[in-house]
Amino acid sequence: MSETAEIKLDGQTYNLPVVTGSEGEKAIDIKGLRGETGYITLDSGYKNTGATESAITFLDGEKGILRYGGYPIEQLAEHSTFLEVAYLLIKGELPTKEQFKDFNNKITRHTLIHEDMKQFYEAYPRKAHPMAVLASMLCTLSTFYPESQDADRDIDSVDLTITRLIAKISTIAAWSYKNSVGHPVVYPQNKFNYIENFMNMMFSMPTEEYEINPVIADALDKLLILHADHEQNCSASTVRLVGSSKANLYSSISAGVIALWGPLHGGANQAVIEMLDKVRKDGGSIEKWVEKAKDKNDPFKLMGFGHRVYKNFDPRAKIIKKACDDVLENLGIQDPILDLAKKLEEVALRDDYFIERKLYPNVDFYSGIIYKAIGIPTDMFTVMFAMGRLPGWIAQWQEMINRKEPIGRPRQIYTGPTVRDYTPINNR
Ligand code: SDX
Questions:
Q1: pTM of the prediction?
Q2: Which atom of ligand 1 is least distant from the CA of 293?
């Protein structure tokens, strides 16, 4: 007899099915609730509501566990590569040597963007935020591949769109940076691997060849792995919702980029550095800013702290904090911002306000310090997050399509005026 949840409404008893996941998580399946009882559920921000069943990523907020396809993030960050993790998320299994070679070659061969897209860069204001550029350029890709707009696309054309997205996002990102500093764009080169190509497009100059630093390449690869997926977060849910209307994959991903841009989500990595800078310029009084973060009347929040799911620690933050030390030491950089971040973490984690609310550093708290150390400008930090998260968004979109999930359309409880008659303006 399968497990059920009993609810009593208006003197009637209903039994709703209970769903149990492969890690023992439980949910009450309410798909029949409204039909049987006339009631819906209400859960602002979906804090307690599951949107789907998914086999891509598992995270346990209490135990600080994060696994892609069952593989612990600590092992993948240590031993895998970003493109291999992208394959795992999208295909559900780690690739064989042959499969990876084919996947990697296809991506290498699709890194160029149409020359006509260069005109769009010239039309943006120099200081256009690269997240605005990224979102529009990714959506614009669909205009260069109109066949991708066909809702009932076949698997081969979906695979080609996936390849194009992963290949071209790094070129689009690097070119938005070059355009913002008035430097000529650098074309991708097939001799480089994915990360090296991005670094070369970002930092190479016509006047001098950029020398790839393996320490930086390794740190970037690790950061992209750590950002690759995070189950039903705000931007992944956006990609799923937009994709559920059968909008094309380019547009669904573009919507995910825009959702990620928010400072409460991926935009936090830029906001952390801006916050630490503000604290430093203000004389570095940690206690003053921690008090501000606790003050309900003060809109200031400790950016990079807190998480909807992790109520213990964000395993990614632990790995990134260690990578921070390694990269800065290796590059011989003494960044006062890192010391400030560590002090802020120490003070906050001793403070009852943060302890009671289980607020710990999240993935965004230390990542910006590494990006800054390797020369990536602050307004490009969330673009880096988007580059890392792209395979996760693709995997979430693909799972929603393959499971033939219905168009997402939540209900509501109406609280506005009840029916009333219109009166012409002269009578009001
Ligand atoms: C990401 O979902 C994901 O998986 C996201 C992500 C991913 O990989 O996709 O992990 C990436 O988005 C990480 C989060 C980055 N955002 C930030 O660092 C911004 C700062 N953090 C907060 O805005 C907040 O913690 C959230 C948005 C991350 C989570 O918000 P919740 O779950 O809605 O929690 P809440 O706002 O209801 O906070 C609970 C309490 C409140 O106080 P009380 O009303 O109970 O008194 O904690 C307080 C909040 O005021 N609080 C903070 C705080 N975060 C929460 N107080 C001060 N500083 C903070 N950072």
A1: 0.97
A2: 57
243 vs 402: CA distance, rounded Å: 12
The residue whose C-alpha atom lies closest to atom 13 belonging to ligand 1 is 265
CA distances from 189 to 57, 167, 180, 199 (A): 33, 12, 22, 11
| 153 pLDDT higher than 80 | no
**Catalytic entry in 221, 314, 364, 379:** 364
For residue 255, report the distance from its CA to the centre of ligand 1, in Å: 21
Residue 407 lies in a domain: no
- Count CB neighbours of 59 within 10 A: 23
Identify whether residues 260 and 392 lie together within a single domain: yes
pLDDT exceeds cutoff 80 at 152: no
Residue 62 within a domain: no
Which amino acid residue places its CA nearest to atom 18 of ligand 1? 304
Report the interhelical angle of 82-91 vs 155-180 (nearest 10°).
140
User: Which pairs with CB-CB distance under 8 Å and at least 24 residues apart come from 119-122?
Assistant: 121/175, 121/176, 121/179, 121/185, 122/179
